[in-house]
Amino acid sequence: MELTIKPCPPLFSHINRYVDRMNNCISAKLMPGEFYISQNEEMITTVLGSCVSACIYDPNRKIGGMNHFMLPDKGAAQSDESARYGIYAMESLINELMKCGCRKDDLKVKLFGGGQIIQNMSDVGRKNILFAKNFLYAEGMRLEASDLGLIFPRKVNFFPHTGKAMVKRLRSLHNDTIEAREKQYAASLKQEDIAGDIELF
Length: 201
Hints:
The chain has helices at 86-99, 124-139, 177-191; strands at 16-20, 25-29, 35-38, 42-48, 52-58, 63-67, 108-113, 143-148, 154-159, 164-169, 198-200. It is of the alpha/beta class.
């Protein structure tokens, strides 16, 4: 059966969605500072360095989403309310899921990323991990599974309708994109354990 990309809500019209032949599904690819929610049998994918992604889903309603944030907080001097910051990325994702009919008590969470992929650099990843875990604790949300820290970039594929997550640890950087991103995060900061049912692929 031929896969067709159905229209998505205007909030997510900027997200790159395409037919993923390898996984035989429609896929939504997240860039840093983006989040996406699906009520269909889609996959959400992203590549993480020191960034963290939260995959949050409601197994009863088969709705879920993913974010991709770069820094824990904007800092007192910044006024940018964007999903590049953990606090907005988490709140935005949860609020939109609840607008879709999800109950906060039913939501399950998986966390990925936060790697220190460039040696001798400020450990932005560790700060992102601490933020995400503290946020979940403060909100009374249980962390179901995670693959966090260490020195690896990661590719994450998440299937919101089932909650299945697949993680690939990238042993080498095939291009300069992630490394350039990491150096940019470090500059921004100067200015201002596999667990659970995660499948490695």
